[in-house]
Amino acid sequence: MSRAFVKESDGEEDQEVPELQVSRHRNLVTPSGLRQIEATVERLQADLTEARAASDRSTVKRIQRDLRYWTDRLRTAEVVTTVAATGTVRFGSTVLLEKQDGERVDYQIVGEDEADPAKGRISYVSPIARMLIGAYVENVVALADGEARILEIS
Predict the structure, then answer these.
(1) Which of 16, 61, 148, 154 has the most crowded CB, counting CB atoms within 10 A?
(2) Residue 7: per-residue pLDDT
(3) Is 80 exceeded by the pLDDT of residue 83?
């Protein structure tokens, strides 16, 4: 048989897909964060079915890798429900800060997978969150761009 009609591998499907790194920290999540993880697992399962139907091996490998990560995150999730306000910053708290220039900024302390700093959601293991956890209204914290005073905790 002539080799002219045999598809040669482009090497893409043979390449290993590196595993996603799982954090060494506890997998604390808010109830909303748990729903996000569950939705991600469901979406990936649907994507995997489509990729298999299309015989897209490289996509199947990538999705399987992502599915392993998110399934593990779902399995290890520790949901932290909010409790009555204690006046102290803790996991799940939203903190209103006032910077020296008068600018106000909100941060909600959430799990690593639900963090989105652009939207004010910061991971509980981030440097800012670690400074805030345990603080009270009127405490002053040192941010990278100057000090800020805690105005409100909810």
Answers:
(1) 148
(2) 46
(3) no
Asked whether the whole model's pTM tops 0.85, one would answer no
The domains of the chain are located at 15-79, 94-153
Task: For the chain, give the number of residues.
Answer: 154
CATH topology of domain 94-153: Chitinase A; domain 3 (3.10.50)
